[in-house]
Amino acid sequence: MSQEQQTIDLQQYEGTLQLLKHAVEGLDGEQLKRKPAPDKWSVTEVLSHLTDHNIVTTFRIRQIISEEEPKLPPFDQDPWVSRTRANESDIADIFAVYQALLTYNALLLRRIAADDFNRTGINVRGKSVSLAELLKAYVDHVHVHLGQIDRIKQAVI
């Protein structure tokens, strides 16, 4: 992976917070917590999930950089959202944690060697995943949830 490509990927990763903030701009607290159906997530829960996913990604990044072919941990997103009572979270707190994770990871990702982006771990499906692929998958995951946020907004507002 070239240094130029690495920079683009980091900018996309770091830019996810602004995309999420833009997606919820103008929503009040009640709208953020309203669910389209009892078994569906609210916008707050989606944002909490993405922060949880960023926590897991933070760990996976360090595993890939530091270990030889580590087994990357899975997580079961629905209990993480429901059992942590994510819908009771304050959006400002969620964004503060998300920002801290972005900053912490970006500091690390800027100081590692370009070759480290080719290091790999093994995902739950047994597939080898490079650090570069992990970061791209995270950004893609955020984009999937941006679509979900748009659908929730249409359903509840």
Description:
- It comes from Paenibacillus filicis.
- This is DinB family protein.
- It holds the Pfam family DinB_2.
- Residues 12-149 form the DinB-like domain.
- It is a single chain.
- The chain is mainly α and 157 residues long.
- The chain has a single domain (3-156), classed as dinb family like domain (Four Helix Bundle (Hemerythrin (Met), subunit A)), CATH 1.20.120.
- Helix content is 66%, strand content 4%.
- It has seven helices and two strands, in the order ααααααββα.
- It has helices spanning 3-14, 16-24, 29-33, 43-66, 77-83, 91-111, 131-156, and strands at 120-122, 128-130.
- Helix 1 runs parallel beside helix 7 and helix 2 packs parallel to helix 7 (131-156).
- The mean pLDDT is 94.
Q: Using the coordinates above, name the CATH class.
A: Mainly Alpha
Strand ordering within the main sheet = 1-2
CATH architecture: Up-down Bundle
Number of helices: 7
Shape field: globular
Low-confidence segments, ≥5 residues, pLDDT <50? none
Instruction: State Rg.
Output: 16 Å
| Strand coverage percent | under 5%
Pfam family, one: DinB_2
Protein name: DinB family protein
